[in-house]
Write a structure and sequence with these properties.
By secondary structure, this protein is mainly α. Helix 1 runs antiparallel to helix 2. The N and C termini lie far apart (67 Å).
């Protein structure tokens, strides 16, 4: 077997190669015998260009984001409140005290829900683009309706009037707290320095 001259493979994207002595294509290695280093090819870098780097989210997206944020804040708060109240129930063996502990359970869960609504509403108001107080309030109402549906599915004992009243109260707390959080978030957004 006879060894022939070694052939150099072309660099992808450099086009057809010509014979020796022809000018090399951009990005190709230097011809044989040349001492210069090849031209470095740089990859394009994607950078955010400020305001025109894409469309901003529609306001209804922020309702969904606010709903998720409220659940993320509410679940640990409700878990903490219920753990504390369960310990209080275990300590008190008195049947008369159970009514006050259950009332405290409802009150602490309502406070936890209101705090979560404030946090989720603040997120929507502060970072929501075109979304504002209305979308923040809607996210609180959605969370209230979802939580009410979960409670209804568990089959807790209550009449139709009791369930309807519970839904109205939960939606009112969720919407009011989220609206207030959205209002605070909008004020924070107005006072924030413009992004460059």
């Amino acid at each position: 077997m006879v060894d022939g001259p070694k052939r150099r493979l072309p660099v992808v994207g450099s086009g057809p190669t010509a014979g020796p002595g022809a000018p090399s294509a951009p990005g190709a290695g230097p011809p044989r015998g040349a001492t210069g280093s090849p031209e470095k090819r740089r990859l394009p870098v994607l950078q955010g260009g400020g305001d025109d780097d894409g469309e901003e989210r529609p306001p209804w997206h922020w309702i969904a984001l606010g709903t998720v944020a409220i659940f993320i804040v509410w679940l640990p708060l409700a878990g903490l409140a219920n753990t504390l109240l369960r310990r209080m129930i275990e300590r008190t063996g008195d049947a008369a005290a159970e009514g006050s502990v259950r009332l405290a359970m409802v009150g602490l869960n309502a406070i936890a829900f209101a705090l979560a609504g404030l946090a989720g509403g603040y997120l929507v108001g502060r970072f929501g683009g075109r979304a504002g107080r209305r979308e923040a309030a809607a996210s609180g109402a959605v969370v209230a309706a979802l939580a009410w549906t979960l409670a209804l599915a568990e089959g807790a004992p209550a009449g139709a009037l009791g369930w309807a009243l519970l839904l109205v109260v939960m939606v009112a707390i969720g919407a009011a707290a989220s609206y207030a959080g959205g209002r605070v978030g909008l004020r924070a957004r107005a006072g924030a320095p413009p992004s460059s």
